Fold these 3 entries.
Entry 1:
Amino acid sequence: MDIPNIDIQLKTLPNQPGVYQYYDKEGKIIYVGKAKNLKKRVSSYFNKTHDSGKTRVLVSKIVDIKHIVVDTETDALLLENNLIKKYQPRYNVLLKDDKSYPWICIKNERFPRVFSTRRVIKDGSEYFGPYTSGKTVYTLLDLIKGLYSLRTCNYNLSEEKVDAGKYKVCLEYHLGNCKGPCEGLETELEYNENIKAIRELLKGNFKDSLQQFKHQMKQFAENLQFEEAQKIKEKVEVLQNYQSKSTIVNPRISNVDVFSIMSDESYGYINFLQISYGSIIRSHTLEIKKKLEESDQELLELAITEIRQRFNSNSKEIYVPFSVNLGEAIKVTVPKLGDKKHILDLSLRNAKYYRMERFKQIKIVDPDRHANRIMAQMKIDLRLSEEPRHIECFDNSNIQGTNPVAACVVFKDGKPSKKDYRHFNIKTVVGPDDFASMEEVVYRRYKRLVQEEQPLPQLIIIDGGKGQLSSALKSLDDLGLRNEIAIIGIAKRLEELFYPDDPIPLYLDKKSETLKVIQFLRNEAHRFGIEHHRNRRSKGALNTELESIEGIGEKTIVELLKHFKSVRRISNAERKDLEAVVGVSKASKIYNHYHQK
């Protein structure tokens, strides 16, 4: 798939919280950022001249933008941290400032120390980071210090020196913060077990540490060592509390691939989320063109195989919206509720947004293709014999039986054709009779089109249920157009679509584009009709009393209203003020009318 240019990508970004990723021409992530509103935040990079030269360089290198939509701004912050740790994009470090960034070091030595540093030395030590926030480093180190007893001294604790008794325990030992490896009071094996747990914790894997502490707590409790058990319990709570703040997925969900699919008549859109240690570390959406009307299951099975190969995924479990056949080596889970269902819904939302953005991009780049797709889908959804390129929708408007009017709005290729909109004042119906009014306006509309040899629509939509539809059908029968034009009625309450001679209504998916076009038509007809009705009613209410004055016509009333702004001011005006606007004769009639009353 060709990458749309940056301008088009910016126009189609969602106004949702999420994380954005910038890619260079080689397809490498060069920057990851979070946003409360993706469209506004990403657009800001391209809508102004930046003071920072580094930012200008970054913007010049961007050729593609991808994003992951999440629920909240907090989720975006956490996901941003996960992705920066995973990919370490170049400009996430360069664009902050010129200083070096903090790392957490596990020193390459006997009884390794764990500390923060801004210098990475290639001496065999392990470094975790870089962290974009020093606060994150201090929080992690405090967490580690509270969970594990580690030495803080910089002694060379070689086996020979410890056995020779060269060192003595310090205050940290007496405070309970260190177990005294300098005097051989803690074995290297015990110490390294803690280092192993710390290493996993820094990678984001809290599961092993939690299990270890819970096991220790249980043992202390069984041995009636309740004070020790309570200390371990507090550590478990600290670890769980930190973990809940550092992930947007349940930490028990680890090493899992999540797949969801959205499809239409031509394409399938499959979103992939990779979960590691309770955090999202990758999101990718694949677009597949249908060739043989493949089912969603067939498309999803094909996409899962392709995506897992592309990203070298070895996950033994996948979450999907429905059962798929991938062999016995992979566990397939179809979540129904809870955190697993939540992450599947998040994947589906990203697939939907990707599909919407593709449609918007196509609409900008190739509007004809967009219209063709909509028309083809409407033909299928509404069971029509031809594409509804020309649609007309009718709506009646009257309030308490006054000023009954009707409106006809016209859509061509799925878009409003406002020059073809028409108003109708009801002429033959007395009182509020929607059925008779609908029969009149449909008859008048298509009698005129036939007489003038104008093109007829492929579809008529009647705003109302079976009664209004029957009335419109009667007019088409009278004109001999019953089989020339497709006609349906839409009932407001449940969005039911009624067809002639079919008692069972059709229900479209609430999110389908066909229903959205029909709702747009119906709402336009309602707006257009109400607007005309209000104009007539307002004109009648304002002008009724003025028009009742003999010798005062419409032009005079308009002049008066322009000057005095309201009927009440006209009624209270002095004779000389009226004379200045409409002359002595008419002013006298108006003044006498109101003052005699």
Entry 2:
Amino acid sequence: MTGDLSVFRDPRSVAVVGASPDPAKWGYWLARGALQGAGRRPVHLVNARGAVIEGTPSAPSLRDLPAAPDLVVLCTPAATVPGLVDEALDLGARGLLAITAGIDLAHGEPGLERRLAARVRAAGARLVGPNCLGVYDAATDLELAWGTFTPGHLAVVSQSGQLGLELAGLAAHAGLGVSRFVSIGNQVDVTAVEVLDDLVAHEATRAVVLYLEGFADGRALLGAMARLRAAGKPVVVLTVGASAASRAAARSHTGALTAATEVVAAACRAAGSVLVDTPAQAVELAHLLLGSPLPPGRRVAVVSDSGGQGALAADTLAREGLAVPRLSAATADALARSLPATAAVGNPVDLAGAGEQDLDSYGRVVETLLDSGEVDAVVLSGYFGCYGADTPQLVHRELEVVKTLADAARVHGRPVVVHSMSPDSEAVRTLRASAVPTLHTVDAAARSLALAARLAAGSGAPVPGAAPGAGTGAALPYLEARARLAAAGVAYPGAEPVRTADDVRTAAARLTAPYVLKAGWIEHRSDVGGVVAGLPDAEAAVGALRDLTARLGEGGYVLEEMDTRPGVVELIVGARRDPAFGPVVLVGLGGVQAEVYRDVQVALAPVTAGQARELLGRLRGAPLLTGWRGAPAVDLDAAAEVAAAVSRLVAEQADVAEAEVNPLRVGPTGAVAVDALLVSGAGR
């Protein structure tokens, strides 16, 4: 962290400038919230007309306050903000919370907000905002934001104030609550990285939800997220397509295939965090992160008091990439001994009415499954949670089962996730309070469990470093690009430069037929018919040169040996510099249809060969690599070595902006690259 942020979590005193008695205005909510903490710190209200707010009189200006404020909240017209900043700094304020938006526009001075931030830092103070919704800290009675907050253990850090409020509201509705809320706004001074670092030692926070629309210093952000993970506080990330412009500017298929969210998802995996799609998904996942153990694997047992609900739960889990394995005969027999003869004990487990006969059946079945060691989590789906709500006489017995479930999860270190038909009952509330995640839909339970498994499997290693690089420059000619990639460890067939018919004949004598002729100076030569393959001899190659020269003009052509090995699968391997997160590597099914299939995996670069092999294994088309319909398996180790080499090239050599091999032809006997694209850094 680059500075002390204590003034934004537990200030010695607070002054709200722009306090209002009108409940429809921001100034009212800020004043009202500040007064909630009046028992902990002095609260001063500033209103030019001297209005009384919630029974508390206000002063007409900061200079009229009885004491200098520690934290000044600015909720006034944009035109007044620069003067108020100077006034607050003159009084010795350590922190400014700027709610006001549009300061640059109001003054017709682009960059004014950042100049104000520099002025604040020069005075030894800090600024959150502007254009933010405020801050809240449950542990210190600090509430300086619109709305109301429910205390809990989930921290919310959001670039969008309103989306942050939605997250806080969803958390409250789910019975989770918020430990700290920070709307960071324009981040002209205090950044998301600093706010995250300030949460590492925050005792009340057990998990964090982060919403950002842009990633100015992605690697620094990942470092903060990794530090939170190391402190046992996983981070859930929400974002939008912030890097669309950079994708459009990319020169390679790799650039076109690395969507903004795919890069962010890869970055999150590197930091041991996880990317979700919606605020609801973030809060649903938070149920599993606030005290519940994470699943050590992807094997899930389903327990239900309804055959239909159990089957749907199993299907839903499978769609999320989780396994619902058949139980061993020993475990099935143990379950059968305590259930009716009509029960199903293979997985899903159908209690067949046992719950109605004896509520303890739920606990016994879950304990048996966790004790078996055959599953990494249990999903309990159906009516449980409704018994006490529908039949008050059963409340006590249902709560006893809740305790059994919570104890079983804690003892075995594996989560029990409940999908209950009751959205809110005493049992449901107690389940959540006992760190047993309880959700109202089975798809939410399955999705959250899959995300939790991804988090558990996430990297705990340091975020990979990379050399700084410049922007995109020119594409190198084919032979030069090939040479750079070959020097990095990528195998290529023999090739010779040619310009004339005599060059072709001389080159053909040194190479092995059949041949391929390429227009080496064109980046995407296949798109313009700049590649002729399957040339059986020198004279066929001479004819091809004449045809290409007639269509494309004279230039640096290349005659290359053609890879004719059987059983080959074509892959794409590429790496590029993302403007926020730095080097990223991509592997996928390749060839001219690479962008059609979009079957790719992305990771931060550099990667090891082992990590690259894991990426290849996650492709939808992975069965093509391991032997599909009797075909021989290809050399995955060779493909992984190429991916690692390309990732190192971009990560370690600052003059390379993009590098790509498409296709990389991988067969049972190795991997051979038959194309090369290398884009230099700007200024090369």
Entry 3:
Amino acid sequence: MSEMLERIIDQGVGRAPADVVLKGGRFFDLVTGELVASDIAICGDRIVGTYGDYQGREEIDITGRIVVPGFIDTHLHIESSLVTPHEFDRCVLPLGITTAICDPHEIANVLGTEGIQFFLDSAVETIMDIRVQLSSCVPATHLETAGADLPIERLVPFRHHPKVIGLAEFMNFPGVVHKDPVCLAKLDAFQGGHIDGHAPLLSGRDLNGYLATGIRTDHECTSAEEALEKIRKGMHILVREGSVSKDLNALMPIITERLSPYLALCTDDRNPLDIAEQGHLDHMIRTAIAAGVEPLAIYRAASISAARAFGLMDRGLVAPGWRADLVVIDSLENCKAEIVFSAGRRVTDALFATRKPVEPVGLDSVKAGEVKAADFAVPYAEGQTSVIGVLPGKIITEHRRFHLPAEGNQTGVDLGRDIIKVAVIERHGVNGNHANGFVQGFGLKKGAIASTVGHDSHNICVVGVNEEDMALAANRLGEIKGGFVVVEDGRVTGEIALPIAGLMSLERYERVRDILHHLRHAAFALGATLEEPFLQLAFLPLPVIPHLKISDRGLVDVDKFALIG
């Protein structure tokens, strides 16, 4: 190491040519907010010179361009991109996302520690720096059936892995407030380390009790008022803009220079089609600046503030001694990445080719039995029926109540009010549970959509207008070993196979993107009105997000944290 330090010093003071020098451009100083005309000298994996002229063994002319620190996605589930970590690396690193802090919560709920190990093995190989949070809630609640159980004893052995940061989003906030022993054991084991939060709409003294355990971050704020209370109580707010949960617009009032040290950016769940059409964190930056947010505030949130929130003290600034995660962009407003450096390495196809592959896991995880149309029947009952109310662009759902029509001795759908059926089928081979209900807001006029991506336990979730199409869609998922299926009038009109734990494709991200484009059109042909019908479907079984959800055990009143009926 001393020899390397000598090289770093010599190149920094200019006694020796730097390995790489970016010449002719400016960099965005996130301390002062200035655009500084300067060379940037790189030695190995770190920056060694700014505010001056440097000579380099390799010199890159970036005249007219701006250099910013690499972007950090502070909370995401790579599984929701529907591709492997290796393909996610290829997909978003060229957009300037040089660090991703992921929670392999989805694959952990299907495969347990095998899924976590798959992500850790992948993170060692990827070019971008993927950091892993250990999934804290597997299963997420007692109200659903998951494929695995991860008590604290199974998490602790991973704690000191070099890619592990800490404990992932602690979703069971009622369990924390009411001192559930399993929750307390996990929190106790990670005292003094990083504990990620997940506390939608939690406020007042219950929020105080939750934060008193050492939880420091939250990505579930959906209003500026909620975010401000949490910031005032010491939380670092992760502003989220995913494919379904879109909170950036609501939280723009808090993205200011004053509050930027307490903010970061995240996507949570974002698919390759949206990444291709809009972008990733770069899309958030462009959108915020176009809406009037100060560039200094949003770029801080995207890098230095994010790094400090998670203890990554080596990155986030363009300054000597800092990790050379750098993005050369056309302008602060457009934020179009033209050149990206990851730990001093220029990102190219050849660089991606140096990675070693990681063997896929969970290729036989869909173990549900065959279902029939009659399994989706709902007996008629007098009075109002609870209906899940979908809110476009949000994973929060409403608890609505309607008088639904009778079809003989069964409860029927009501297309006039956009109310159709929803079902969750246990697919891990544990108990064969099957629960039916109703949902409003998908817009379907015919057919069915089914998925093995169903947060958090990832059972089969299907919505549809008629039982025959629902059964066909659910059974087709078993044949393709998981994924998404669209059925119209007794035939499959679109599908994507996700055989890795029923969550991720074996294909390259470009192929997944193209299939998703066709799949989306197949859903729109049914009348679907949601921008992201598949991911919106995936959140219907999420019983840690208010207000009404459905699991394989039945309808869940999330406010009461209890099954209905």
